[in-house]
Amino acid sequence: MKTTCFIRVPSFCTPISPIIRKHLQKSFNKTGHYNQNHISTLNSAQTSISTSPSSPAPSTSHKPQTPVFLRPLIYSSTFPDLQSFTSWAKTLVSSVGSTFVQLDNGSDSTLLLRELRWLLEDSIDDPSLIPHLGICQNGGITSNTGSSSTEVVRLRVSLGQMYQLWKQRIQERRPFQYIVGCEHWRDLVLSVEEGVLIPRPETEKIVDLVGNVVGGNEMLREGLWADLGTGSGALAIGIARILGKNGRVIATDLSPTAISVAKFNVERYGLQDIIEIKQGSWFSPLVHVEGELDGLVCNPPYIPSEDIGSLQAEVAKHEPRLALDGGVEGMDNLLHLCERTAAMLKPGGFFAFETNGEKQCRLLANHMENEMTGSFRDVNIVSDFADIPRFLTGFCD
Amino acid sequence: MPNLLARRSYLRSLFLPPKPSIDVFLIHTQSELRNTNLCSSNSRRFSISNSFVYVPFYLGSKMLPHTPKSSEFVSNHYCSAHLHHQHCQFWSLSGKAPILGHGCGVSSIIIYFQAPNSLENVKISSEYNRNRVISNGVMLFCSHAAVEPSTSDGLTVERIIGNQWTILDESASDWKSHASAIAQSVHLIKKRLQWKKLMVRLEQLSAELNKPNIWDDPVHAGKISREHGSLMGKVKEVKAFEQDLCEHIDMIKLAREEGDAELESETMKALLRMRRDSKEKELDALLSGDHDSCSCFIEVQAGAGGTESMDWAAMVMQMYKAWAQRHGYGVTVVDEMPGEIAGIKRATIKLDGEYAFGYAKAEAGVHRLVRISPFDSGKRRHTSFAAVAVIPILEDVSSRIQISESDLRIERFRAGGAGGQHVNTTESAVRITHIPTGITATCQNERSQHQNKASAMAVLQSRVDQLEMARQAQMNAQHTQSLTEISWGNQIRTYVLHPYQMVKDLRTNYEVSDPDSVLEGDLDGFILCFLSAALDKDEDAP
Ligand SMILES: C[S@@+](CC[C@H](N)C(=O)[O-])C[C@H]1O[C@@H](n2cnc3c(N)ncnc32)[C@H](O)[C@@H]1O
Known about the structure:
The complex is a heterodimer.
Chain A: H1 18-31, H2 36-47, E1 75-78, H3 79-96, H4 99-104, H5 109-123, E2 152-155, H6 159-172, H7 176-180, E3 182-185, E4 188-191, H8 204-215, H9 218-221, E5 224-228, H10 234-240, E6 248-253, H11 256-268, E7 275-279, E8 293-298, H12 313-316, H13 332-344, E9 345-354, H14 358-371, E10 376-383, E11 389-396
Chain B: E1 3-9, E2 21-27, H1 30-35, E3 53-58, E4 72-74, E5 78-79, E6 91-92, E7 106-114, E8 123-130, E9 133-139, H2 157-163, H3 175-192, H4 195-210, H5 218-258, H6 261-286, E10 295-302, H7 306-326, E11 330-338, E12 344-352, H8 356-360, E13 365-372, E14 381-393, E15 408-412, E16 430-434, E17 439-443, H9 449-473, E18 491-496, E19 502-505, E20 511-512, H10 515-519, H11 524-540
Parallel strand pairs in B: 3-7, 4-8, 13-18
Antiparallel strand pairs in B: 1-2, 1-7, 5-6, 8-9, 10-12, 10-14, 11-12, 13-14, 15-16, 16-17, 18-19, 19-20
Helix pairs in contact in B: 2-3, 3-5, 3-6, 4-5, 5-6
């Protein structure tokens, strides 16, 4: 029992909304990492006044999992055994056909086959064997040449685990990224696991947006940035790598799992001197830098609560609700961020938020214009790859 | 009055194998003699150090006992000792000159004289005899036209080729075979250099340089002299190579006459080294196009004919993957559109490595297959086509076309739906369209969208560059064509699996009877044959 684990929510920050508390409870119950006692810790923490936000973050007992591709090569199998695994896995895939697509716009068999190849890539010592496993339907004339049958193939997960993992992928629709424990995002390979949102390709663009503004602006390039609700640490790491040598990033999250996974990723990219990770709700870990931030990015949970049940199974059944649920309209967090951003940023500081789409972008832009007149300038709605208005960017006036 | 300087080098020291060679220098002043780099053309095998003595012969017309009338000189009349680059003294050397007998081995004899203008293509013979050092037949070139190097009995590279001696395997100890192979390579290298044109140009430049007032315009003179120097360097290198060949032949004949087995085997080894060396040089010469050294993309597209063609396209792609692996190139699949039942509709792979483009460009065009289709239940013979395009990846960033972001349309696949946090998909394929040209590129093989975009951008960049290159050069060379431009009539090679077995290149008529080995990537014969044929065309072009 992980008795040392608790969540501290400093009291003089925004109180945790009932929605969030509800989600926290749900997600804790779900992942099974926390028992009822911890929930009450959480509840009592909310009413506690004594905790200071600037004291060191509480240690969490959560130990991040190692992604498959980083595990040692301690297992082995033979080429024919791997071939039978592959053909079994392919049968499973073909049984899926397009059912997932029809069900909830999930993956089709082409995609699943590609994932199977990636699973093999991550697990096998020598990826040059993969083309010979018969994974590709389109191998042309040579398909099964190359390896002699007795050859031992070294693996990072046991063959038994591979069967189990692929079964989970197809039958439970466990996200592929949780299966292999990583997500390729931009030029990074980030560790992810249950309890942490798998970073989305749309979000990659926020780093580009930041890249554009820091390009010609030394203050921003050498400045202090914050990534709120950092999850796996994706945005913080992406941004830290494009800032100047004096640039710093504070990454925060409320979820202890996210905090430990983000730490793992930050250290893997050797950025621990540039990125500071703090646990807490939204701005509470940042009160000591109020008005000093040069940039602020956030991809907060923005899905309207009632939509969550109907999401693609990989998302609805496996990803943390805390990372998705944005309240009735999905705007709770975004509005809260909006309120405090002007106070947190220096004049000339830049912000970028991700939203659920056009409606939220407009609502937010209007809110800034009408309710917070004079706080921001150059507020801009930016579309993602699929041409969906996705991001709201602007500067503090 | 041009001065001529010939050096005959011998090495007969205890440490080095016997190795005669000749360098010829054109010099204009005495001081130039001192500064001329007297390193042997064989300096890659040994270098002449101060411990060797140069023995220049002075044959200045003043000092010659008679004005040269015939083209025959006897050179052992005057000589001077010359220690490396230090100054010369002249004295007579006649008969068995003592200087040749000195201890550390004579390295070279230098013949230097002011040639009367009338002299051209003079051949000078000199003869020394000192136990085992025997040689005769020093060649001289005058300043106007370089004489073709030849053996003492008049064999030249051209004549060797004319003789059509059979080229045997390297392991065969047959000097004619080696000589023939070397001559072939030299021939090819000359073609690549556009030898005839080059010689004409050199002549012009020499004439220009000989004008007395040339240095009145130093900028112009500098330019001329630099070009002259660079062309001269190329000519000298080839000439030296030819000269080496001739000398080796002389040497081997001599060794046979004298029954010197050691000398014969040494010379044979030297010939073999030359043969390998020339093969390398030949390859360098074949691959000296502007972008030949670049990495490249290979694109294959199935022709009409459904599954059978798509299967053929996949076979062709597989052939290139295998070929690339043999060459040690990195192979990455950038984009692949699979067929419904088998094969591919089209695919793009990237080959990373030196000269990938130089070789692969020979493959651009339409490849035709004749076989009994495994997809035809009636077991009939089918003919299918696959088009291949090869695109260089320009290394020099400055020569690339600047593509502006605003000219691009970037699309995600399966973009329907709300996206963002709603969806977790590993589908991150990206298609980029360059709006002004309509060129598109797709990538779905990377695991992040960012990387797919970067890969697709690289393909797009190369395609746009290629379009521009083709526009600029206004050349219709196949290897600059994109897939869409390649006409299906433009067949370059036929692969027949049934009723007989054959692969034949329609451009060069090169053919083999073993399609399997070709489909497994044994393409070098086809490629090299095409590349040298392409040189012939260049040479013939005006
Ligand atoms: C949509 S995820 C984004 C994760 C990451 N930034 C990314 O783009 O992949 C939202 C994140 O916000 C965190 N979060 C939710 N409520 C929070 C709160 N009150 N304070 C801080 N972080 C919170 C979640 O744990 C989750 O990691």
